[in-house]
Fold each of these.
Amino acid sequence: MSELFDAVDALIASRSPLPPPAERKRLRQAHGLTLDEVAAALQVRRATVSGWEAGKTEPRPPERDAYARMLKQLAHLYPAGAPVPPEDTAIPETPAVPAAPAPSAVEPAQARTAPTGPAAEPANTALRPAAPAAVSRPAAATRPASRRPAARKAAPAGTTEAGTDPRFENGPLAVVDVDADGQVLAYCVGGLVLDVTAKSLPALVEWTLGEGRLGQPKLSGPGKDADPLLVLTGAACEHYGLPVTLTKEERLAGRIPEGHKVIKQLTRANWQLTKRGFGPWARIYRPAQGSERSCVQLCIPSWDALDARHWADAAQLPPAELARLLGTYAARVMTPRGSTAVTGLELMTALHPPTRASEPDADGRRHSEHNPGSLGKDPVDCAPCEAPDGHPLLADLPRFHQRTPAEVLVEEAYDWARPLTDAECLRPHLVGIDVNMAFAAGANGLNVGLGEPTQVKNPVFDAKLPGSWLVDLSHVDLSRVKVAKDKWADLDGELLPSPFTPKGERPDGPAWYATPTVAYAVELGYDVTPIEAYVRHDNGRYLDAWYNRLRDAYLATMADLGVHADMPPAEFLAAMDGYRRRDPQLAIVVSAIKATVKGGIGKLRERPRGEGWKPGQPWRALARPTWRPDIRAAVISRTRINMHRKIVKHAAFTGQYPVAVLSDCAVYASDGPSPLDFLPYRDGKPLPGGFKLGVNPGLVKWEGTQEVLWGEGVREQFNAPQLNLARYIKDGTVTDVDSGE
């Protein structure tokens, strides 16, 4: 009988009533939802939702029932005739974040309404933070008691103010400090300050979970809410019995000793630490009871938790300002889970959780099952050619064996330079342009493998099939390439880097390449005949939601700094001039977002990190489903190819060639000091498919300008005719020849 009921339920769901297409779009826009957000919630593609709103297609079960449920709830909130906010139009290369005005990301907690539901995202994910304080407050140890901010006690559990989510009323995180009177204060986003009554670290964890009301809603329906984050200042560390700084031995170990008194306190209170122990980013938890998680993340800036390369001087900020900075990052990206690299990887999993709840069985129970589109909960072995040196798959190789390109996949970013021609030496300037969020743009729309590889001998190349291909591309001649359908261009191939190697050298035989690299050889007009391949038939656009989230975070923060999408070229260059000085804290957020992109991609092929590892043995990262060197290779391949495609378009149209390329930066000899002096704009419009000035990922900004005499001088000074000038174009400082490692 239950099977009959299920069949009836499915039949009803297949005919769930839907409003007309125009009404669907109105309801979505009225609630401020983007196509990407709806698509992520329903686990479909953005184009699918767009087709539903245009009336071109109709949703089918099981998405139809969920889509109808969403529209029904929105219809109650926004009856017909309600005003609809305008929706910005994105530029063709990559969509821009909606720029509709919204409340501040750091408004007081009592004024926030946290979203609920399976697709809820953190409140105010792309909003304008308040202006920074004009005067920095003194450190806690020297601040007079009379200047302590007005604080309030956390409300008892079970109570809430109208319109707020009781779980996360006070935001995703708090910076815990101690004032001159010895009072412990928790600085939350929006200027909210809470009195903390906890006398010990275990009590602080209990207070956070019981009264703190900190955390963040999940980013995906099957996912988990973010655990609350406590940032402990030096004064708070001292108050709770932790060292203010780590000794040299503790820094090398990445943790305090297991016998530390605070760890003993946690153990007595039945709290546990992860295998990484109590370090700069510590996780304190109790085993989950059903769906209830009891976990608090700690961040200790004085233990170097906030890497100065990405967070600048954030660790030295006063508590309220640090709460604002980290709160903005948490709202737009996610609550930090560790370094920016760790957070970048965790964001992938948060947007595509490995499992989901199944449909009810005959007894009405749900079970955990694989979440389609995710990497799953179990790691998969890479192909031998994708394995880095020391991997267990290579344990049988001789100890000092150097693998050739025909044995190992090497997809890395560009590091190429050449001598200047006589004509280029007569030009006065070298101008560098840099691709915004280049690796994020490389991930956008990229089809990557989700499961294990399948070995194929003598395959027919398929550009839609992600994988690694052994193929000879030495016959590709850059002096004659296809630049459009049935349109060929004659170029000076000696002045171009090869698109197939990181050093720009022409390959001399078979080598392993990721799918985007081989597809580009076909795009240039040449046939390819693979010898062997490891392909992944289970594949999908796994990184799309990750890209969208980080793109929106980047564009929203740049807009707060006065740099908007769709600016005319001259206005964009003017807006970029000194944008970091307008709000140094938000500029740090921009740097952290960029580091999240690069670090997240890098973590896909994390190498051993000490711990007594020996070549041929597995290391800890291999146990993660997100240890996927093939995905990293595909993103880097796509990023390098994107750069080369623009270089070729530019050369075919203008006859200008780069003198150096480093990752996402290209340097050209120019008659003027500005990118507008050599980029071929006509009536404000760029060369189609070439370099375009703008803030969006994939577009370019000015990196720096030096004199041609400077470039020739430093090469002569260091006796390095191939010195990569792109590495030093920003400020012209060359202290020594850099290997680029």
Amino acid sequence: MDHALKTLLTLDGHIPETIGRAALSSADRSVADTPVGHRPLLDPAATTPDVLILDATGRARFILEGAETPAGSLLVGSLVADPELIHKISRRYASARAADESAGAEMRRWLQELPQDGVRTLIDQLAYVVRHMAPVLLYVGDRHYSNFGQFSNLPGRSLNADDDRNLLNRLAATPVTEWPTEDACFIALTHFLLRSGIQARLEEVNGTQLSPAAVVDFLTDRIRNYGAQPPRSPQNSITAAHLESLADTCARERRDQLAGGAVFYRLIHGVNLNKAEHLLPQAVTYADVPPAVRTLFAQTAGIPSDTSAFDDTRPALDRLAGELHTSPAPAGFHSAYEALLTRFMTTLAEASGSDVAMGRGPRSLAPLHPDNVENGDPLELRTNDFFCCVAPGEGFAAHFADDRAALVKTLSAYSARMRFNTWHYLPHTLGVHEREPGRDDWFFAPSMPDLTHWSDQHHTGHVTFGVRFAIRVPLGIEYAGRYLPGLYDLRLMRAHGEQYTVADLRATVAAGRLLTALHQAMSPYGPTVRDFDNGWFRTFYG
């Protein structure tokens, strides 16, 4: 059984076993943790009533004593052992389920003590968050909760808020006393998670079980990673009051880390979209910018390659911005600014061993100015009002040999997808996402870098475009007296080969800070980006 179960938990080596195990209910873990030497055999040909399955959501589960197997499941095999061992396993399984029910009762009691409008507020807040964020798939016991695809029972891009399958609407119309324990746990525990930081907390527990004990462990671990001590826990039980204290401590310590200049990043396992938050261990400096990129800016801006502090680059970048604004456009470009962006991406792609480097942003800042009256409502902008500069590494371009049309099609596809992303984040970037009338189709603007493994196994766009390993660094600038998060970004991708490392991420974060400083220095000139559309890619790379 060990080999088969490990294959299921790691999805054949594509995610760490710890994350796969975190998807198991405590009852399933009680079976998986049967001591060595007392474990049942797993026989695909046997027909005993106790089986191991992979359910339709991709989670390993044990179904004991002939309980109903969920529709769409894949039977891995039957458990074969002497009756006494099976009986012991069944008792542990039942005991774990009873313990979960008892722990969940505390969450239900807490919800019942809230005013009715307080419960409705929790439901409305959760509905708001999941409608405007990336896919989530969470578990409580045997039940799943998702805003994604065919498994959706939460509102999002796959399920309209007024759809009959929207669980949150049903809960809002039902007294808490009539909720299943799993649903009570889900509402309470997602509240504590969101209270502990930002909406991305839900993505951090993607593909895992939510239980009071699991959330306590999660928040305790985060607080310790921030260099602080978690509040003391009560004896022999988990209370809602303790979860609230943990959540508030976690949120406060995270804010303090950000205020002190800490750089958070997320390690994303693309197969199940688990997005775990981590801290870069040391401050990022200009010295972390890849040497080839530093050489480029030594040549174009006069920044000495041995510069260590980003603040020391500002005067040179301000001068460079003025030169780019007035310089004639090199051949193949509409402006010197666009030419430098292409050189930046090309240099970074080669320096990082990437197949492609790219960066997105607005074609014009003018429509984003708060006093804009001449350029129309910024929420009426379309995807073509944004750009994405995409540059291939030499090896990636050589892969297409003489088929330049295929190369152009690929680069154009990357660019089009990233233009959509800028459009999708724009309401939140501008801080007008709650404006009425507004635009309902938007996502929260990204706030921290991502390091992604195996995203071509799940993420639809990445599957289509062969993006297996990736780094994303969101970039924001100050414009017209306000900060615009995620207005720009920097991305690297590899379709094959080795996955990116934390050292690669650090170098890309540093390169992103340099790119941010360039965008910031250019912003007073109101640059217009006209390159990087399909026609430009055909002309430049065809």
